[in-house]
């Protein structure tokens, strides 16, 4: 590669880094928008209604709560399960909520004030997970009886069972197109199943601990898993290859959720934090503090503008993402979504984390669900710390590293500029010498020609 082309490449990289810094400085941090308290035990699962007007939560207290996002509307408490609820999910239409329980049943609820529901015995053991297919016509359940089962939503008809796990199955999810099912088990495997053939097409065994949660990337080409070995891993299901490995938590990772754009991954952990990972760059983007104890569940809304979390502190929190506009994110996804790159490196190394302290607070106690009041009014001691206002020990290492990289690149550019200038001078001298030689050669030829004429 010539010096000029190298200079052009470095200039392009410099421009990209400058834009990245501008983006980091302009971007708002995630902020706590809602805080709900009403459960009497650990929250186990949260999900948004697709219309974004409600948030559902399940708890070890055996109750399903529906939190209305409008300030003037009270929450609904649904009672029906005889033991802990371990998983809840809205149907794609938002007209139903499925809940899975330790009482071995699954219930389908209507999210209205009446709370009507139908129930069916799904397994012979605790039902750990329930999830709708993308078209809303099917349900997949996972259980301690070591099976994954698929059901119709209409009349809850049993369709088939997947039976190759040899220990409790913690989680099962459909792919976005409904062709595949992924399941995670205490046998330390993640299995990908073909729904039509009902065969296991691949097993991933790289986790050192039990897998608590698994889900498909919005593109359907990858799956991510959260495990008890404190790690999050992402596999490409086309090449059956590990492509990203994150070790950002200091405790068990309980749950994860992909942003609808596919560019970000939200994780929750026993270390009391939520973390947001930038999948395009393979690095930690934010660390969020708010829960007083283990964060047991987390979920993005369907449009990605919000995410909810629940924990052992019996609280449900709703956060605003404050990412780029949806349009920008969709365009970014189309431009450079890592998930569609078959030549991606097997594992990307993390850079220094950019930590955001988004809330360390004491919350007021309330035995019943109350209409939402602003968090600051509920607790005047609450402080929200954006990324640019770190605690003294929380240095914004990422910006510092970027600045150092920029300085290094600028230095290289200066050296290259000087080198190119010297080469141009040498080229000019060479051209002058060539012209001088050519002139002398013409004189010599002229003299030889005149001598031949005389003879």
Automatic annotation (TrEMBL):
Gene3D superfamilies: 1.20.5.110, YVTN repeat-like/Quinoprotein amine dehydrogenase. Its main location: cytoplasm. One of its GO terms (biological process) is multicellular organismal-level homeostasis. It is found in: Cytoplasm, Cytoskeleton. PROSITE patterns: WD_REPEATS_1 (PS00678), WD_REPEATS_2 (PS50082), WD_REPEATS_REGION (PS50294). The keyword Cytoplasm applies. WD repeats lie at residues 36-77, 78-109, 120-161, 162-203, 204-245, 246-287, 288-320. Keywords: Coiled coil, Cytoplasm, Cytoskeleton, Repeat, WD repeat. It comes from the Eukaryota. One of its GO terms (cellular component) is centriole. Transmembrane segments: none annotated. May play an important role in centriole assembly and/or stability and ciliogenesis. Interacts with pat. Belongs to the WD repeat POC1 family. This is POC1 centriolar protein homolog A. It comes from Leptobrachium leishanense.
